Amino acid sequence: MKPQRIKLHLKIVLIFTGLTAATILLLIILVYFFAEKLSAEDFYKRLDIRAAMFAQAKFPQNQDNSDIIKDLRDQYLETLPHEKEYFAIVDAKKKENVIKEVQLPASFYNELFLQKRAVYKMGDNYFAGILYKQNGKTIVIVVSAQNEYIKTQLTNLRTILLVGFVLSTLLIFAVGWFFSKQIFLPIRRITQKVRSINTENLHLRLRTGKNLDEVSELARTFNNMLDRLETSFESQNNFVSNASHELSTPLTSIIGEAELALQKERSAERYREAMDIILKEANRLKVIIQSLLSLAQTGFDGKKQSFVTLRADELVFAAKSAVDRIYPLNSVRIDYTLLPEDESQLKIKGNEQLLILALTNIMLNACKYSDNNEVVIALASSNSKLFILITDKGIGIPQEELRYIYDPFFRASNTGTIKGYGIGLPLARNIIRIHNGELTVSSVINQGTKVQIAFPIEKSRSL
Fold first, then answer.
1. In angstroms, rounded to a whole number, what is the distance separating the alpha carbons of residues 242 and 8?
2. pTM
3. How many CB atoms lie within 10 A of CB 281?
4. For 19, how many CA atoms within 13 A lie in the half-sphere containing its CB?
5. 179-188 contacts: CB < 8 A, separation 24 or more?
6. How far is CA 177 from CA 171, 215, 295, in A?
């Protein structure tokens, strides 16, 4: 059998009820303890008064007062249940078994001879004794009785406290159940809403409200997750669509040219033309596959990469040289105005070939989509980070398409006939990520694009 699942709100109610009931029970125990203690002290005082009056009546200093004391005792002091009075004239040196009728412990007599008064409880019987002296004699007087009145009161108090404990526990559980249902109501609504969201309606969002409580924060977190999921699904669809197109186009050309060439005998020149087309499309397919392979390889965490301390300005110069070989007439310019004076702020740790590849891809994109307008490369640094800024004055990227620029094979809608595969920027971002860097792209349509790369500065070693 599967274990029964206890809902969270029921767990909270049970825990709340248990803690509150334990607190109330502790208070009840303390109330009962102190009530019993106070009642015992009060009863001891009553016994003490009876012992004192018995001594005055039994052994008065002034015989004339004896009748008055007896009258006061009979009129104002009610006989206690099972009340008994004992007295003995004792030797001051002998302090044990003074009262032969009752076996009281030695501690009682020690306290009596030391403090002149003593109290003791044996079963249901309470004892109070006083030490009385008259005419050079030492007299011990002990009065005992049973506390029937307070016994009844404590029984009633115990019953009231237990009934109150049970009723208050039930009330606390009921109130806790009601409030927990109200508190978890927004969470249940969120759960129901999330259950209704699937791949067909990822555009739906949870209501967050204007509050800043934990439930609203949970709803906003779910909405952020749904934003990422929606973007991920759209990116996946774009990747599949674009990859299929990019891979099928050269394959279609290769297959078509091969089939056309094999249909009938053709001249050597026509065969050469077909082979040229096949070779061109095969090279194109090779570039796409190699780009995909590089993209996949840079998707790992980079722990097995060989990282050394490098200078960022030298990496920029190397990438600029690579761009010069591909586009000899490029307008790439390096801006030195923000270059830090301290050379240690130019040091980063990484793989030289990968970083040059990433910078080269970004620079090539800037040249390609700016119609050979000026592209400015600048280096700057803060206390902990090194920044590489690449700015162009090209066609820009539509604002609504910026979130797709890292999807493989994605190309902005305004690229037109400009050749490209849409892999360079995703590849560059993966390389930058495995170097603990950050890549940020901002763009304005028909005004240009700005790419900012941030790397942590390496300060542990010098070149």
1. 46
2. 0.46
3. 19
4. 6
5. 180/9, 180/10, 180/12, 180/13, 180/16, 181/9, 183/9, 184/8, 184/9, 186/215, 187/215, 187/218
6. 10, 19, 55
pLDDT tens column, 194-203: 777 776 676 6
Whether 92 contacts 138, CB under 8 Å: yes
Q: Is the pLDDT reported for residue 461 higher than 50?
A: no
Alpha helices in 184-267, H assignment, sequence order: 185-195, 214-263
Tokens 């390096």 map to which residue?
334
Higher pLDDT, 235 or 384: 384
Closest listed residue to residue 447, CA positions, set 369, 383, 381: 369
Element (H, E) at 172: helix 148-183
- The H-or-E segment that residue 278 falls in is helix 268-297
DSSP-derived letter for residue 264 is: S
Q: Exposed, middle or buried by CB within 10 Å (0-12, 13-18, 19+), for 250?
A: buried
pLDDT in tens, 414-430: 777 777 667 778 878 88
Q: Which helix (H) or strand (E) holds 316?
A: helix 312-326
